[in-house]
Protein backbone atom coordinates (compact mmCIF):
# COMPACT_ATOMS: atom_id res chain seq x y z
CA UNK A 1 0.00 0.00 0.00
CA UNK A 2 1.36 3.42 -1.03
CA UNK A 3 2.11 6.12 1.55
CA UNK A 4 0.63 9.60 1.86
CA UNK A 5 1.69 12.33 4.30
CA UNK A 6 -1.27 14.50 5.31
CA UNK A 7 -0.63 17.91 6.94
CA UNK A 8 -3.49 19.84 8.48
CA UNK A 9 -3.50 22.72 11.01
CA UNK A 10 -5.93 21.20 13.50
CA UNK A 11 -7.31 17.82 14.53
CA UNK A 12 -10.08 17.23 11.95
CA UNK A 13 -12.44 15.94 14.60
CA UNK A 14 -15.19 16.29 15.60
CA UNK A 15 -16.31 17.28 12.08
CA UNK A 16 -18.64 20.14 13.04
CA UNK A 17 -17.45 23.09 10.91
CA UNK A 18 -16.92 23.44 7.18
CA UNK A 19 -13.15 23.06 7.39
CA UNK A 20 -13.08 20.09 9.75
CA UNK A 21 -15.88 18.31 7.87
CA UNK A 22 -13.92 18.53 4.62
CA UNK A 23 -10.59 17.51 6.20
CA UNK A 24 -12.24 14.60 8.02
CA UNK A 25 -13.96 13.34 4.86
CA UNK A 26 -10.73 13.46 2.85
CA UNK A 27 -8.54 11.72 5.39
CA UNK A 28 -11.21 9.12 6.17
CA UNK A 29 -11.49 8.31 2.47
CA UNK A 30 -7.75 8.23 1.79
CA UNK A 31 -6.97 6.09 4.83
CA UNK A 32 -8.99 3.25 3.28
CA UNK A 33 -6.71 3.12 0.24
CA UNK A 34 -3.30 4.38 1.38
CA UNK A 35 -1.03 4.24 4.42
CA UNK A 36 -1.66 7.72 5.73
CA UNK A 37 0.45 9.62 8.23
CA UNK A 38 -1.36 12.57 9.78
CA UNK A 39 0.52 15.54 11.25
CA UNK A 40 -1.46 18.29 12.96
CA UNK A 41 -1.60 20.74 15.84
CA UNK A 42 -3.92 20.30 18.79
CA UNK A 43 -5.74 23.57 19.43
CA UNK A 44 -8.39 24.52 21.95
CA UNK A 45 -9.89 21.32 23.37
CA UNK A 46 -8.68 19.08 20.51
CA UNK A 47 -6.78 16.81 22.91
CA UNK A 48 -10.09 15.65 24.39
CA UNK A 49 -11.03 14.08 21.05
CA UNK A 50 -7.77 12.38 20.03
CA UNK A 51 -8.65 8.97 21.45
CA UNK A 52 -12.10 8.96 19.84
CA UNK A 53 -10.62 10.17 16.55
CA UNK A 54 -8.06 7.37 16.43
CA UNK A 55 -10.74 4.76 17.13
CA UNK A 56 -12.73 5.94 14.12
CA UNK A 57 -9.91 5.98 11.56
CA UNK A 58 -7.01 3.75 10.59
CA UNK A 59 -3.76 5.70 10.29
CA UNK A 60 -0.25 4.44 9.66
CA UNK A 61 1.18 7.13 11.96
CA UNK A 62 -0.22 10.04 13.94
CA UNK A 63 1.93 12.98 15.02
CA UNK A 64 0.37 15.86 16.94
CA UNK A 65 1.64 18.87 18.87
CA UNK A 66 -0.37 20.97 21.36
CA UNK A 67 0.27 24.41 19.96
CA UNK A 68 -1.57 27.71 19.60
CA UNK A 69 -0.45 31.33 19.22
CA UNK A 70 -2.85 34.17 19.78
CA UNK A 71 -3.81 36.72 17.14
CA UNK A 72 -2.45 39.86 18.85
CA UNK A 73 -0.30 42.92 18.17
CA UNK A 74 2.93 41.31 19.40
CA UNK A 75 2.58 38.34 17.08
CA UNK A 76 1.66 40.64 14.21
CA UNK A 77 4.89 42.60 14.78
CA UNK A 78 6.85 39.32 14.84
CA UNK A 79 5.18 38.23 11.60
CA UNK A 80 6.32 41.50 9.99
CA UNK A 81 9.87 40.87 11.20
CA UNK A 82 9.83 37.35 9.74
CA UNK A 83 8.18 38.68 6.55
CA UNK A 84 5.28 36.22 6.58
CA UNK A 85 1.51 36.73 7.06
CA UNK A 86 0.24 36.75 10.64
CA UNK A 87 -1.66 33.46 10.43
CA UNK A 88 1.36 31.71 8.91
CA UNK A 89 3.48 32.92 11.83
CA UNK A 90 0.82 31.78 14.30
CA UNK A 91 1.11 28.25 12.88
CA UNK A 92 4.90 28.19 12.73
CA UNK A 93 6.53 25.47 14.83
CA UNK A 94 10.16 24.32 14.58
CA UNK A 95 9.46 20.93 16.16
CA UNK A 96 6.89 20.07 13.50
CA UNK A 97 9.14 21.45 10.75
CA UNK A 98 12.01 19.15 11.79
CA UNK A 99 9.73 16.14 12.04
CA UNK A 100 8.19 16.62 8.59
CA UNK A 101 11.64 17.15 7.06
CA UNK A 102 12.94 13.96 8.68
CA UNK A 103 10.19 11.74 7.22
CA UNK A 104 9.44 13.34 3.84
CA UNK A 105 11.39 10.76 1.79
CA UNK A 106 9.12 7.97 3.00
CA UNK A 107 6.10 9.32 1.09
CA UNK A 108 5.12 9.22 -2.57
CA UNK A 109 2.73 12.13 -2.05
CA UNK A 110 2.34 14.97 0.45
CA UNK A 111 -1.19 16.32 0.86
CA UNK A 112 -1.15 19.85 2.30
CA UNK A 113 -4.55 20.60 3.79
CA UNK A 114 -4.79 24.41 4.16
CA UNK A 115 -2.39 27.21 3.26
CA UNK A 116 -1.28 27.44 6.91
CA UNK A 117 0.65 24.18 6.50
CA UNK A 118 2.44 24.83 3.21
CA UNK A 119 5.33 26.41 5.10
CA UNK A 120 6.40 22.90 6.14
CA UNK A 121 6.94 21.71 2.55
CA UNK A 122 7.70 24.85 0.55
CA UNK A 123 11.38 23.90 0.10
CA UNK A 124 10.73 20.22 -0.77
CA UNK A 125 11.75 20.33 -4.44
CA UNK A 126 11.57 16.58 -5.11
CA UNK A 127 8.32 15.85 -3.28
CA UNK A 128 4.99 15.57 -5.09
CA UNK A 129 2.69 18.07 -3.38
CA UNK A 130 -1.07 18.30 -3.62
CA UNK A 131 -2.36 21.50 -2.05
CA UNK A 132 -5.93 21.81 -0.76
CA UNK A 133 -6.73 25.51 -0.60
CA UNK A 134 -9.71 25.73 1.79
CA UNK A 135 -10.30 29.39 0.88
CA UNK A 136 -8.65 32.17 -1.06
CA UNK A 137 -7.62 33.80 2.21
CA UNK A 138 -6.55 37.11 0.75
CA UNK A 139 -10.11 37.68 -0.51
CA UNK A 140 -11.56 37.48 3.00
CA UNK A 141 -9.06 40.01 4.33
CA UNK A 142 -9.59 42.25 1.30
CA UNK A 143 -13.34 42.30 1.87
CA UNK A 144 -12.92 42.85 5.60
CA UNK A 145 -10.76 45.90 4.83
CA UNK A 146 -13.45 47.28 2.52
CA UNK A 147 -16.07 47.00 5.27
CA UNK A 148 -13.97 48.48 8.07
CA UNK A 149 -14.66 52.16 8.78
CA UNK A 150 -11.65 52.76 11.04
CA UNK A 151 -8.90 54.20 8.80
CA UNK A 152 -6.04 52.67 10.82
CA UNK A 153 -7.66 49.21 10.91
CA UNK A 154 -8.65 49.43 7.24
CA UNK A 155 -5.05 50.16 6.28
CA UNK A 156 -3.60 47.43 8.51
CA UNK A 157 -6.05 44.82 7.19
CA UNK A 158 -5.37 45.86 3.60
CA UNK A 159 -1.63 45.44 4.16
CA UNK A 160 -2.25 41.98 5.59
CA UNK A 161 -4.45 41.10 2.62
CA UNK A 162 -1.63 42.04 0.25
CA UNK A 163 0.88 39.97 2.24
CA UNK A 164 -1.43 36.94 2.14
CA UNK A 165 -2.06 37.37 -1.60
CA UNK A 166 1.69 37.37 -2.30
CA UNK A 167 2.16 34.31 -0.09
CA UNK A 168 -0.72 32.38 -1.65
CA UNK A 169 0.56 33.11 -5.13
CA UNK A 170 4.02 31.86 -4.15
CA UNK A 171 2.91 28.57 -2.59
CA UNK A 172 0.41 27.74 -5.33
CA UNK A 173 3.27 27.96 -7.83
CA UNK A 174 5.22 25.39 -5.80
CA UNK A 175 2.40 22.82 -5.70
CA UNK A 176 1.87 20.24 -8.43
CA UNK A 177 -1.93 20.39 -8.08
CA UNK A 178 -4.14 22.90 -6.23
CA UNK A 179 -7.70 22.00 -5.21
CA UNK A 180 -10.01 24.96 -4.58
CA UNK A 181 -13.64 26.06 -4.93
CA UNK A 182 -14.64 27.62 -8.28
CA UNK A 183 -14.87 31.17 -6.91
CA UNK A 184 -11.52 30.81 -5.14
CA UNK A 185 -9.87 29.49 -8.31
CA UNK A 186 -11.06 32.60 -10.13
CA UNK A 187 -9.64 34.83 -7.37
CA UNK A 188 -6.30 33.01 -7.31
CA UNK A 189 -5.96 33.15 -11.10
CA UNK A 190 -6.41 36.93 -10.82
CA UNK A 191 -3.07 36.97 -8.95
CA UNK A 192 -1.35 35.74 -12.12
CA UNK A 193 -1.45 31.98 -11.51
CA UNK A 194 -1.89 29.48 -14.33
CA UNK A 195 -5.35 27.92 -14.64
CA UNK A 196 -3.86 24.51 -15.43
CA UNK A 197 -2.64 23.85 -11.86
CA UNK A 198 -6.15 24.02 -10.39
CA UNK A 199 -8.75 21.33 -9.81
CA UNK A 200 -12.28 22.14 -8.66
CA UNK A 201 -13.47 21.00 -5.26
CA UNK A 202 -16.23 21.96 -2.82
CA UNK A 203 -16.71 22.16 0.92
CA UNK A 204 -19.78 20.04 1.49
CA UNK A 205 -21.73 19.13 4.57
CA UNK A 206 -23.65 16.31 6.21
CA UNK A 207 -24.87 14.47 3.14
CA UNK A 208 -27.05 12.16 5.23
CA UNK A 209 -29.49 15.09 5.55
CA UNK A 210 -30.38 14.52 1.89
CA UNK A 211 -31.96 11.20 2.75
CA UNK A 212 -34.18 12.37 5.58
CA UNK A 213 -37.90 12.61 4.82
CA UNK A 214 -39.05 15.87 3.25
CA UNK A 215 -39.78 18.81 5.53
CA UNK A 216 -43.40 19.91 5.89
CA UNK A 217 -44.24 23.61 6.14
CA UNK A 218 -47.07 23.00 8.62
CA UNK A 219 -44.80 21.02 10.93
CA UNK A 220 -42.25 23.81 11.25
CA UNK A 221 -42.30 26.68 13.72
CA UNK A 222 -42.33 30.35 12.80
CA UNK A 223 -38.58 30.35 13.32
CA UNK A 224 -35.41 31.24 11.44
CA UNK A 225 -32.07 29.55 11.95
CA UNK A 226 -28.37 30.33 11.77
CA UNK A 227 -25.74 27.61 12.31
CA UNK A 228 -22.03 28.42 12.34
CA UNK A 229 -18.77 29.19 14.08
CA UNK A 230 -19.58 32.13 16.36
CA UNK A 231 -15.89 32.98 16.76
CA UNK A 232 -15.35 33.46 13.01
CA UNK A 233 -15.25 37.15 12.12
CA UNK A 234 -17.33 36.80 8.95
CA UNK A 235 -20.16 35.16 10.92
CA UNK A 236 -19.89 37.72 13.74
CA UNK A 237 -20.01 40.63 11.29
CA UNK A 238 -22.94 39.15 9.39
CA UNK A 239 -25.04 38.42 12.45
CA UNK A 240 -24.45 41.87 13.92
CA UNK A 241 -25.36 43.47 10.58
CA UNK A 242 -28.56 41.42 10.42
CA UNK A 243 -29.61 41.89 14.05
CA UNK A 244 -28.98 45.65 14.05
CA UNK A 245 -30.48 46.33 10.65
CA UNK A 246 -33.20 43.75 9.99
CA UNK A 247 -34.46 41.90 13.05
CA UNK A 248 -36.79 44.59 14.40
CA UNK A 249 -38.39 45.09 10.99
CA UNK A 250 -39.03 41.35 10.58
CA UNK A 251 -40.40 41.10 14.13
CA UNK A 252 -42.75 43.98 13.41
CA UNK A 253 -44.34 41.85 10.68
CA UNK A 254 -43.95 38.49 12.42
CA UNK A 255 -44.51 39.09 16.13
CA UNK A 256 -44.15 35.41 17.14
CA UNK A 257 -40.93 34.83 15.20
CA UNK A 258 -37.99 33.16 16.97
CA UNK A 259 -34.36 33.30 15.80
CA UNK A 260 -32.19 30.31 16.78
CA UNK A 261 -28.45 30.99 16.60
CA UNK A 262 -26.53 27.72 16.93
CA UNK A 263 -22.82 27.55 17.77
CA UNK A 264 -20.49 27.18 20.71
CA UNK A 265 -18.65 29.95 22.55
CA UNK A 266 -20.31 32.95 20.88
CA UNK A 267 -18.18 36.08 20.61
CA UNK A 268 -19.02 38.64 23.32
CA UNK A 269 -20.25 41.09 20.66
CA UNK A 270 -22.91 38.60 19.59
CA UNK A 271 -23.92 37.90 23.19
CA UNK A 272 -24.22 41.63 23.88
CA UNK A 273 -26.32 42.29 20.78
CA UNK A 274 -28.63 39.31 21.32
CA UNK A 275 -29.55 40.60 24.78
CA UNK A 276 -31.10 43.65 23.12
CA UNK A 277 -33.59 41.64 21.07
CA UNK A 278 -36.66 39.64 21.99
CA UNK A 279 -36.83 35.99 20.88
CA UNK A 280 -33.21 35.73 19.70
CA UNK A 281 -31.94 32.52 21.28
CA UNK A 282 -28.29 31.51 21.55
CA UNK A 283 -28.62 27.73 21.79
CA UNK A 284 -24.94 26.89 22.27
CA UNK A 285 -23.43 23.87 20.54
CA UNK A 286 -25.93 21.23 19.36
CA UNK A 287 -24.51 17.80 18.57
CA UNK A 288 -27.52 16.58 16.57
CA UNK A 289 -28.83 19.40 14.37
CA UNK A 290 -31.67 17.42 12.79
CA UNK A 291 -34.37 18.41 15.33
CA UNK A 292 -33.65 22.13 14.98
CA UNK A 293 -33.52 21.86 11.18
CA UNK A 294 -36.87 20.11 11.31
CA UNK A 295 -38.62 22.77 13.36
CA UNK A 296 -37.11 25.87 11.69
CA UNK A 297 -38.77 27.39 8.62
CA UNK A 298 -35.96 29.46 7.09
CA UNK A 299 -32.16 29.41 7.24
CA UNK A 300 -30.58 32.86 7.20
CA UNK A 301 -26.92 33.36 6.28
CA UNK A 302 -26.15 37.13 6.24
CA UNK A 303 -22.48 37.07 5.19
CA UNK A 304 -20.83 40.27 3.95
CA UNK A 305 -17.37 38.81 3.40
CA UNK A 306 -15.70 35.42 3.16
CA UNK A 307 -14.57 33.03 0.44
CA UNK A 308 -14.98 29.39 -0.52
CA UNK A 309 -18.18 27.36 -0.26
CA UNK A 310 -20.46 27.98 2.73
CA UNK A 311 -21.22 24.62 4.34
CA UNK A 312 -24.09 26.03 6.41
CA UNK A 313 -25.89 26.72 3.13
CA UNK A 314 -25.09 23.29 1.67
CA UNK A 315 -26.49 21.61 4.78
CA UNK A 316 -29.71 23.61 4.56
CA UNK A 317 -30.09 22.68 0.89
CA UNK A 318 -29.54 19.03 1.82
CA UNK A 319 -32.30 19.23 4.41
CA UNK A 320 -34.67 21.17 2.17
CA UNK A 321 -34.68 24.17 4.52
CA UNK A 322 -35.16 27.33 2.41
CA UNK A 323 -32.20 29.71 2.55
CA UNK A 324 -31.98 33.51 2.49
CA UNK A 325 -28.42 34.75 2.13
CA UNK A 326 -26.19 37.30 0.36
CA UNK A 327 -24.19 37.15 -2.89
CA UNK A 328 -21.16 36.18 -0.78
CA UNK A 329 -23.14 33.22 0.59
CA UNK A 330 -23.77 31.69 -2.83
CA UNK A 331 -20.30 32.19 -4.34
CA UNK A 332 -19.12 29.03 -6.06
CA UNK A 333 -22.61 27.49 -6.17
CA UNK A 334 -24.66 26.91 -9.33
CA UNK A 335 -27.95 28.24 -7.98
CA UNK A 336 -30.61 30.60 -9.29
CA UNK A 337 -31.97 33.41 -7.15
CA UNK A 338 -35.66 32.73 -6.46
CA UNK A 339 -35.46 29.09 -7.51
CA UNK A 340 -33.17 27.12 -5.15
CA UNK A 341 -32.82 29.92 -2.58
CA UNK A 342 -32.94 33.70 -2.22
CA UNK A 343 -30.00 36.09 -1.99
CA UNK A 344 -29.54 39.85 -1.84
CA UNK A 345 -26.97 42.35 -0.58
CA UNK A 346 -29.75 44.66 0.61
CA UNK A 347 -31.23 44.18 4.08
CA UNK A 348 -34.70 45.29 2.99
CA UNK A 349 -34.75 42.57 0.33
CA UNK A 350 -33.45 39.99 2.81
CA UNK A 351 -36.30 40.95 5.17
CA UNK A 352 -38.81 40.67 2.33
CA UNK A 353 -37.65 37.19 1.31
CA UNK A 354 -37.66 35.92 4.90
CA UNK A 355 -41.21 37.18 5.53
CA UNK A 356 -42.40 35.68 2.22
CA UNK A 357 -41.00 32.27 3.07
CA UNK A 358 -42.41 32.39 6.59
CA UNK A 359 -45.88 33.15 5.21
CA UNK A 360 -46.22 31.54 1.77
CA UNK A 361 -46.56 27.74 1.93
CA UNK A 362 -46.37 27.26 -1.86
CA UNK A 363 -43.27 29.44 -2.28
CA UNK A 364 -41.64 27.72 0.69
CA UNK A 365 -42.31 24.26 -0.81
CA UNK A 366 -41.01 25.35 -4.24
CA UNK A 367 -37.71 26.59 -2.81
CA UNK A 368 -37.40 23.58 -0.49
CA UNK A 369 -37.80 21.01 -3.28
CA UNK A 370 -35.56 22.86 -5.76
CA UNK A 371 -32.81 23.43 -3.20
CA UNK A 372 -32.71 19.78 -2.28
CA UNK A 373 -32.74 18.75 -5.92
CA UNK A 374 -29.73 20.88 -6.91
CA UNK A 375 -27.79 19.67 -3.86
CA UNK A 376 -28.41 16.04 -4.77
CA UNK A 377 -27.46 16.64 -8.38
CA UNK A 378 -24.27 18.65 -7.92
CA UNK A 379 -23.02 18.60 -4.33
CA UNK A 380 -22.35 15.10 -3.03
CA UNK A 381 -19.14 13.77 -1.54
CA UNK A 382 -18.53 10.85 -3.89
CA UNK A 383 -17.30 12.86 -6.88
CA UNK A 384 -15.30 15.29 -4.75
CA UNK A 385 -13.36 12.54 -3.00
CA UNK A 386 -12.79 10.56 -6.19
CA UNK A 387 -11.25 13.62 -7.87
CA UNK A 388 -8.79 14.06 -5.00
CA UNK A 389 -8.00 10.34 -4.98
CA UNK A 390 -7.42 10.42 -8.74
CA UNK A 391 -4.79 13.16 -8.40
CA UNK A 392 -2.99 11.23 -5.67
CA UNK A 393 -3.19 8.00 -7.65
CA UNK A 394 -1.81 9.71 -10.77
CA UNK A 395 1.14 11.13 -8.88
CA UNK A 396 1.97 7.80 -7.24
CA UNK A 397 1.58 5.66 -10.34
CA UNK A 398 3.17 8.28 -12.62
Topology:
Layout: E1 3-8, H1 18-30, E2 35-42, H2 50-56, E3 61-66, H3 73-82, H4 86-90, H5 94-103, E4 109-113, E5 129-132, H6 137-147, H7 151-174, E6 177-180, H8 182-189, E7 198-200, E8 223-227, H9 233-245, H10 247-253, E9 258-262, H11 268-274, E10 280-284, H12 290-295, E11 298-301, H13 311-319, E12 323-325, E13 342-343, H14 347-359, H15 361-378, H16 381-397
Parallel strand pairs: 1-2, 1-4, 2-3, 4-5, 5-6, 6-7, 8-9, 8-11, 9-10, 11-12, 12-13
What does this structure look like?
This protein is an alpha/beta fold and 398 residues long. The protein folds into two domains: 3-202 and 381-397, 3-Layer(aba) Sandwich (Rossmann fold), CATH 3.40.50; 207-378, Glycogen Phosphorylase B (Rossmann fold). The chain is 45% helix and 15% strand. The protein has helices at 18-30, 50-56, 73-82, 86-90, 94-103, 137-147, 151-174, 182-189, 233-245, 247-253, 268-274, 290-295, 311-319, 347-359, 361-378, 381-397, and strands at 3-8, 35-42, 61-66, 109-113, 129-132, 177-180, 198-200, 223-227, 258-262, 280-284, 298-301, 323-325, 342-343. The strands form two sheets. A seven-stranded parallel sheet has the order 3-2-1-4-5-6-7. Strand 2 (35-42), helix 2 (50-56) and strand 3 form a beta-alpha-beta unit. Helix 1 (18-30) crosses helix 16. The longest helix has 24 residues, at 151-174. The model has no long low-confidence stretch (mean pLDDT 93).
- CATH superfamily of the largest domain, by name, is Glycogen Phosphorylase B
Unreliable stretches (pLDDT < 50, length at least 5) are: none
**Please, what is the average pLDDT?**
93
And the CATH topology of the largest domain? Rossmann fold
Q: Biggest β-sheet, characterized?
A: 7 strands, parallel
Number of domains: 2
How much of the sequence is in beta strands? 15-25%
Overall CATH class of the largest domain: Alpha Beta
Cα-based radius of gyration, to the nearest Å: 21 Å
Q: So how many helices? A: 16
**Overall morphology:** globular
Amino acid sequence: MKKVLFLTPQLPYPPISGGTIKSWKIIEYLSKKYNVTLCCFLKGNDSEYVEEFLLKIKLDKFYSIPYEKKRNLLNWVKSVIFKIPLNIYRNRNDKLRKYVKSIKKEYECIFVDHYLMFQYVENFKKSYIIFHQHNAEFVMWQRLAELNKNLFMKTAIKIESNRIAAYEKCICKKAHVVFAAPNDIKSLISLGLEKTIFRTTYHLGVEELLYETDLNFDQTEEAILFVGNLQWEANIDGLLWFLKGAWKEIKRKKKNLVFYIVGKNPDKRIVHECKKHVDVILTGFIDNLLPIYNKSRVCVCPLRFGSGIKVKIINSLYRGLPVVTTPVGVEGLSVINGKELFFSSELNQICKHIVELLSNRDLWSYISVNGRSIAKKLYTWDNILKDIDSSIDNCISG
